Amino acid sequence: MNFEVQLKEKKLKVTPQRMAILNEIQRNGHLGIEEIYENIRKIYPAISLATVYKNITSLYEVNLLREIKAPYQKQKYELACDRHIHVACEKCGKLEDVHIELNDAMSRCSDMTNYKLHDVSAVFLGICSDCASKAK
Predict the structure, then answer these.
(1) Confidence (pTM)
(2) Which tens digits make up the pLDDT trace of 81-133?
(3) Distance CA 37, CA 48 (A)
(4) Backbone angles phi, psi at 97, to 5 degrees
(5) Beta bridge partners of 38
(6) What's 131's DSSP letter?
């Protein structure tokens, strides 16, 4: 992904902090703000948590990032590049993307409610295979 182009298209300045945030999320997938902050501090020791919060908010508001709200977990962020759902482990907190056809489900929900739907946010809860094998 060319983040510089995307930032410019969204009328946001291309700053080293924004680039670092986007690259960190691209590299690691789903991250909370504190995780992003800790990882970026290694590159930019003077960066503040407030700067990370402000930039995450800006990137979220222009739809470059998507917020994931899984029960029992702090919110996480991911790149907003495609529509998908998530599965979350209730034991270890692992969060994974699941790419399945969502258009039919969205169309049926739209028909049932008369909403004009444009996105989906869903998290299925369960126990991952690692945690399940530890329990045996």
Answers:
(1) 0.85
(2) 888 999 999 999 899 999 998 888 999 999 999 999 988 889 999 999 999 99
(3) 8
(4) -80, 145
(5) none
(6) H
